[in-house]
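Bumping with the actual sequence this time:
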Amino acid sequence: MTMTAPIVSCHLPAELNSFIGRRHEIAEVKRLLSDARLVTLIGVGGVGKTRLAQRVGFDLRRSFADGVWLVELAALESPELLVQAVMECLEIQDRSLRPPIEVLTEHLRDKRMLLILDNCEHLLDECAAVAETLMRAAPDLRILATSRQTLGVVGEQVMPVPPLPLPDFDVARSSTDSLKQFDAIRLFADRSQSVLPGFEVTDDNQDSVARIVRRLDGIPLAIELAAVRLRALSVEQLLARLDDRFRLLTMGARTAMPRQQTLRALIDWSYALCTEQERLLWARLSVFSGGLDLEAAEHVCAGDGIEPDEVVDLVVGLVGKSVLAREGDQTTVRYRLLETIRQYGRDRLRESGDEAALRARHRDWFADLASRGQREWFGPDQVAWFNRLRAEHGNIRSALDYCLTTPGEAVRGLAIATALRFYWIATGSLREPRDWLDRLLAAGPATGPAARPPAGPVEGPPAGPAAESAADSAVAPAVGPPVGDAVGDAEEDAAATVRANALCVNARLAVLQSDFALAADMLEEARELAKQLDDAAIVAEISYVCGLAALLQRDITGAAALLEEAVAGYRETDAPMGVVNTLLYLATAHSLLGHPEEAVARFKEGLEACEAREDHWFRSYTLWMYGVEVWREGDVAGAVEMEREAIRLKQPFDDRLGTALCIEALAWMAADGTPERAAVLFGASQERWRSFCAPPFGYLAGHHDASEALARERLGEEKFEAAFRRGTELTPADALAYAMCESPKPAKPAAAAQASPLTRREMEIARLVAQGMTNKAIASALVIAQRTAEGHVEHILTKLGFNSRAQIAAWVSEQGLLPGGAP
């Protein structure tokens, strides 16, 4: 029987070097996962917990229909962002006001997935709480965690990850071949060959190699770091220096575990082998989270002993010493410190007394990056800036955290968060920026009306479909201590301007979540500040947000009037991005009011401005709504092409909300002429709205209702529902291809299969039975206990009225449910 391999979803990084050994540990983790919902790998830093977890995840990828996902937590410093980090990893773009944990549990409720939580030790309590909550809500979810401590969750299975097996002296002296059976020796040989081609463990060096890996206690990271030294040393020289260094170490802290002493000693030794400037750079690089580029290193780390033009050579030196890892491709190069090495550098930085100064420099660099990104957003480099900011998300969080936790820095934090308004919305993230803005506004100085308290969840309807960006109001300069009354007044005005802009951005985000009452409170405070400052730019922002709120609440006439005021204000203050952004919604309001000429004029003006600037983001949203207006005027073919062009423009941003809006519009356009296609698109669209935890329409609900009713009438209820179900079963990629006419129409499922009495899991097991798999093999493939697999097979036999596995196989074949057949 010829079988087609199932499509698997494996969201793990590619292995950059070979995986050595750990066969027993891999088998044991798989065994534990077959019975337990949560398995935690524990061990000292550098012992290889992460690589082991990733390898197990890769091996089990076919057992999890909804994928294997890795959540890297090492660079996450704020416990409050743990759930957000998991949602980002799972590509959940939520725009609702529901608590994040509710959104996450709802997303995972029916998923069969393996979630790897890597490096939990610094977020132990939070990881334990999240893991327990998710397991209660999602019965088919498995969690594999790595940590230096157990999570302490009921039902947790703990597996200590030991160092690699080591030879004793008798084995080392007996045979080179027998020595090579030990994983520690194999790892040392493999990594040595990567830096010294042709290296082999021979009769001449085997005793020294065995002593080296024994001195390093079989810790993989220690072995890898030691192997790098063979670029400059012989095996015997390496052993001699390890011996000397470790004899000195025995006089250190006796309370630390020996392996921790050993790993620390090895990093100490690597540190000692660096030049003074390399050590200085190593310590300073530790302020970065999630990596960095060369430009950032030059600006943050230069000075006080390192000239800017020396940084590149020092970086090259640290890469050569395996302190820095090079990432990226030929066009985009980034660097990352392994977490153990970064923490070591942070300790050295703290001891030097320079940590506060370097964190301030780091904050200044990313404040400047955010400001530049804001200025360049409306232009030809928009996609490049989006990708750059996305790569720096960890550093942005660190900069904001510094501003939040350092007295007197809240205003600077507000400026950063406000400047990132385009980035936040383009990523589909509303909750995180609102959280930063709430906390920074509460921590900031009182300027004008009293600062409002941090916002909590507010009951109300989920957001409508508006996905937009803000106008380009300026970021206020950094605020420092006043010098004299005049300067003091200027600084106070600057702080008030920052606060007003932050209130407007936070209100905008609240409106997009339909949190209208809280948005109104924020806008009232911003309005008072604008009066004090006599600032027309802030007034324009307030008019825009009020107009958007009116539109989402279906006060179309009121929205049009407010948006007209905003356009005039943006023109007066020379804010072209604000003009383009507002024209989109003003044109939409005119379209809904039945003013086609006014709507088309404003759509065209917005498009011309976007094309002149080579903009992608605003142009894609303008095309989306302009296409709807063109469709209403009867040009279906032209409207469809506009929607597809909008989708193409959205793809570099992975703008799933915007793409869903376009797919929805394409369904409307197909309702009359090709109702079956419309039904499939409606189904695909519904699945996308589920991922946003929000209904799709808001002020456009009339278009949806009328188009769906028309498609049902044209197609008939039964055929519409069948086509709609096919749409819900499309993967996001298949739905996109179908909308773009890049794939054939989805095949219809067999009628018998639709009427199957089996559950989803029983259907899956029936397929495996039909493929000839035993209960034991099924249990292994699905990561369940063998007795559970046996129970499922018994249920299948009972439901179908069969007596043998052969009858199950024949039934599955008749339904067309074997791989490569009908769905």
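The tokens above came from a reply further down the thread. Residues 311 and 672 are 64 Å apart (CA to CA).
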